[in-house]
Design goal:
This protein has about 220 residues and is α+β, with helices and mostly antiparallel strands. It folds into two domains: about 90 residues; about 80 residues, hypothetical protein PF0899 fold (2-Layer Sandwich), CATH 3.30.2320.30. The radius of gyration is 67 Å and the shape is rod-shaped. Keywords: Bacterial flagellum biogenesis, Bacterial flagellum protein export, Cell projection, Cilium, Cytoplasm, Flagellum, Protein transport, Transport.
């Protein structure tokens, strides 16, 4: 039987050396210790983080404020323009209304002044006919002159006092032309009425006064 060790069972060869009985071998140097980690100042980091957050917030606030101011300015401008347009429209409406009211007031004042003038004129005319009764004479002549032709009977109606005056001043002339002067108590002083077979002319004071007032666009009664 062979004492040979198969190859696959053989181990690696290690040289054998005799142990030395002299000085012991020097110890292997210990590995160097890693330098200690620097101490972390947590409070400083937190303070720095707080400052950064505060700075970011302040920046955002300023940006938002600037944007808000710009938006507010634009909105304010638009609102201001809208308000100015509304006020301008209102002023134009007030101007038109005020102008219309002024025109109406002027017209009313003019009409009131005209009424006052008519009333004064009527009062003065009545007074004049009282103190100057001879003013009826041209009225009679004018009324007769309106007739295109004279046809009998030709009658002239007057207030009794005016009839007396006409007979004294114009009686002969009227009689020669075929006129008869008649009294009419209801006739106002200063007027007359002419009647012929085909014509009638109302020259009473009230009728003549109404024609004057109507020509001025007013209504005014002589006896009012």
């Amino acid at each position: 039987m062979s004492n040979a060790i198969p190859k696959e069972q053989q181990t690696a060869y290690q040289r054998w050396e005799m142990a030395s009985f002299g000085e012991p071998p020097a110890p292997e140097p210990e590995p160097e210790a890693e330098p200690p980690m620097p101490a972390v100042d947590v409070e400083a980091l937190l303070a720095e983080a707080r400052e950064q957050i505060a700075a970011a917030r302040e920046s955002a606030r300023r940006e938002g404020l600037a944007e808000g101011l710009a938006q507010g300015y634009q909105t304010g401008m638009e609102q201001g323009r809208a308000q100015a347009l509304e006020e301008n429209t209102l002023l134009q409406q007030l101007s038109v209304t005020f102008g219309a009211e002024i025109s109406k007031a002027r017209e009313q004042v003019a009409q009131d002044l005209l009424d006052l003038a008519l009333d004064l004129s009527k009062a003065m005319l009545k007074h004049a006919l009282t103190v100057r009764p001879e003013l009826v004479l041209p009225v009679v002549s004018e009324a007769i002159g309106y007739l295109p032709t004279l046809q009998q009977p030709a009658l002239l109606f007057l207030h009794p006092e005016d009839a007396l005056l006409v007979r004294e001043r114009m009686g002969a002339e009227l009689s020669a032309a075929g006129w008869r002067v008649l009294d009419e108590a209801a006739m106002e002083r200063g007027g007359c009425r002419v009647e012929t077979a085909s014509n009638q002319i109302d020259a009473s004071a009230s009728s003549r006064w109404q024609r004057i007032a109507q020509a001025l666009g007013r209504e005014s009664e002589w006896l009012a």
